[in-house]
Amino acid sequence: MTIGTLFALAAGLMWGLVFIGPLLLPEYPAALQSFGRYLAFGLIALPLAWADRARLAQLTRADWVEAAKLGLVGNIVYYLFLASAIQRAGGPLPTMIIGTLPVVIAIVSNRRDAARDGRLRWRALGPSLLLIGAGIGCVNQVELAQLRANQHADFGRYAVGAVLAVGAVACWTWYPIRNADWLRAHPDRSPRAWSTAQGLATLPMALAGYLAWLAWAAATELPFALPAGPRPAAFIGLMFAIGLFASWLGTLCWNEASQRLPTTLAGQLIVFETLSALAYAFVLRAQVPGGLTLAGIALLVVGVAWALRARPEPLAAEGHAG
Questions:
Q1: Which positions ≥6 away from 249 have C-beta within 8 Å?
Q2: Which pLDDT band holds residue 308 (cuts at 50, 70, 90)?
């Protein structure tokens, strides 16, 4: 449990970086950032694949199909939704919507995976979910108040950003549950090799998407410097940094956590991503969070700590008491 939790914490620290990418490159379309990030991830995976070639050779065709599905939904489509949401609604609102993931994943997986992981009784899981939800509500209240105070705020644009963030939640509810299914079904396989396999499977899709976007931009005479935009060094450098730390290293740490923790608890630990993203966003703003924001963050942390006290019970032992 302790090692799995530390791996989940490391994954959250890495994944929090993806929330500031769209803020650092506001002039770059979300699609280009999504394809660029995972093109970089795939290229990083190539030399890693050579080092893990023996383990990758053990993967079947069905495994590669599964890696491609995970790469498409959990990588490309998820980040397309997320980057689009952040560019429309700013950093904190999408961050807090994504922050509902621990609650959503816990609810979905507590019934879906009960036979495999055991079931957490709702009276044991409920307090942690309430604390996490209250923390998210506190932080979100602060951001909404700032929005209402801005006379030039475009509420329609913010609303679209919120809807896109909900799409990102849907993608990343599916991804960790499906990814955990494969990892728990293959305990003898290397989480590192599985992370690399997802990068390799994502590479051709990201390359095709990037080239298609360039072709569309050229055909429509979009006023955008091709192929790498107005700040190519910043774009390429940031894409490779996020590809290495968030995509590969973050996925590796999450895979390690997923092999050690029940999916219900692992899902709640995604809250580390929310905390990291908030911290990075406030650093980027050069702003100290206020009292209500800090209270919300504290509630999130307490909720996670409470969740770790709960232990799943075998389904047969639970009977009808849950």
A1: 10, 14
A2: low
pTM: 0.82
- Quote the CA–CA distance of 128 and 138 in Å, as a whole number: 15
Q: Report angle CA 299, 304, 306 to the nearest 5 degrees.
A: 90
* CB-based burial, 255-287: b 16+ in 10 Å, e otherwise: bbbbbbbbbbbbbbbbbbbbbbbbebbeeeeee
Give dist(CA 81, CA 139) in Å, integer.
Answer: 21
What's the Rg (C-alpha) of the chain? 20
Closest CA to 269 of 235, 303, 237, 228: 303
Backbone angles phi, psi at 313, to 5 degrees: -110, 145
pLDDT tens, position by position, 18-38 = 888 888 999 999 999 999 999
Peptide bond into 262 cis (omega under 30): no
In 3D, which of 171, 199, 28 has the Cα closest to residue 105? 171
Tens-digit pLDDT profile for residues 161-206 = 989 999 999 998 999 889 988 988 888 888 889 988 999 999 999 9
